[in-house]
Write a structure and sequence with these properties.
Helices cover 74% and strands 0% of the residues. With 87 residues, it is an all-alpha fold. The chain has one domain. Helix 1 runs antiparallel to helix 2.
Length: 87
Amino acid sequence: MYIIAIAWLYVTVLMAATEKTVAAGLLTFVFYGLLPCALLLWLLGVKHRKFKQSSKPPFEQALGQNDVSLFENSVGDPDSANAKANE
């Protein structure tokens, strides 16, 4: 998928380089290259993002990512939080 995007951006850079003015070259690159390529990658990435979201364990889906990290940090040794140095 990325090779197609790289090739398309290469073609649009060459198209932009042949324009008469710098402004026309930038507009050609943005409207023929960046915007369509970004839209294509976003549309093709929807399936991958849904798969990544569904492959999370259920407790990660119910809790936020920050809540999960707090949960994992607090599950360790519960007595170590109250221990003093050299006890």
